Amino acid sequence: MPLVGKKQALELGASIADDEVMDLMFDGRDFVAKGLVGDYHGRVCIMATGAARKKHPLPGMEALEGHGVSYCAVCDSFFYKGKNVAVLGSGEYALHETQELLQVVSSVTLLTNGVEPTAPFPDKVRIDKRHLQGLVGEGAFQGVHYEDGTEENFDGLFVALGSANATDLALKAGAAFDQGKLVLDENLQTSLPGLYAAGDCTGGILQVSIAVGEGARAALAAIKYLRENK
Ligand SMILES: Cc1cc2nc3c(=O)[nH]c(=O)nc-3n(C[C@H](O)[C@H](O)[C@H](O)COP(=O)(O)OP(=O)(O)OC[C@H]3O[C@@H](n4cnc5c(N)ncnc54)[C@H](O)[C@@H]3O)c2cc1C
Questions:
Q1: What confidence tens digit (pLDDT) does each residue in 145-164 have?
Q2: pTM tops 0.85
Q3: Residue range 67-102, pLDDT digits in tens
Q4: Which residues have a Cβ under 8 Å from the Cβ of 115 and sit 6 or more positions away?
Q5: Does domain 61-159 have CATH number 3.40.50.1000?
Q6: Among the CATH numbers 3.50.50.60, 3.30.360.10, 3.40.80.10, 3.30.70.20, which is that of 3-52+164-228?
Q7: Is the distance from the beta carbon of residue 163 to the nearest atom of ligand 1 less than 6 Å?
Q8: Contacts for 35-44 with beta carbons within 8 Å, 24 or more apart?
């Protein structure tokens, strides 16, 4: 946020948290955004996490989404009860998804695709830093191809690259999607009352002017929602 805007927001009573959000929960009335540093509670939530550039990082991934490839541990971990899964990622968000999975699955292997892990993964997680070439499986995910020519089988793959984006957070909170796209009404509200999205994360034209306009529209709609739902 530019310094003048930040100063004005603080003077008007806003509080600003410098944190990475890992999870978003909705109990039918209130939202809780769970961050690395703290939890943030509110009646409304506007997601403005920017463009999701991490989607489909490997060939064949899109076709296997929902068929062994998942972007949400809290939503899908139960399908892998007692099974061996892999997490694609290396940072705090991957650690969060891994911890969610470890409560249900038999084993988690972290696939970092050539980078060093940047979060404290538990010892029981096997870390494989080899470069990946692609996925194994047609119609259903079966495993991964490494660049060294070998293959390894897994029951499921959870993608947790970078930070959680609006799609990840909306999935976790339980918002509706249509053909993989977050459903938004004319006020940029998702199917969950009080949950909005604005800016590049809505998947429209990636321009500052559009992001600012959508931010204003979502904020005005959120204020109206709060006034009507005290
Ligand atoms: C190289 C480049 C050049 C560009 N040039 C132009 C240009 O000339 N003109 C133009 O109009 N547009 C340009 N754009 C596009 C413009 O930058 C975007 O449209 C605009 O920044 C979108 O704003 P936003 O707030 O939606 O997302 P962003 O500006 O991407 O902000 C999203 C913020 O959310 C944070 N975030 C994400 N996930 C989390 C999480 N889980 N927890 C906490 N924080 C999180 C990110 O760290 C980031 O600070 C350019 C973009 C790029 C990449």
A1: 999 999 999 999 999 999 99
A2: yes
A3: 999 999 998 999 999 999 999 999 999 999 999 999
A4: 90, 129
A5: no
A6: 3.50.50.60
A7: yes
A8: 36/92, 43/194, 43/225, 43/226, 43/229, 44/194, 44/195, 44/196, 44/222, 44/225, 44/226
pLDDT band at 128 (very low <50, low <70, confident <90, very high): very high
Q: Of all atoms in ligand 1, which is nearest to the CA of residue 210?
A: 19
* Ligand 1 touching residue 167 (CB < 6 A): no
Cβ of 218 below 6 Å from ligand 1 = no
Give me the amino acid identity at 188.
L
Q: Which atom of ligand 1 is nearest to the CA of 51?
A: 30
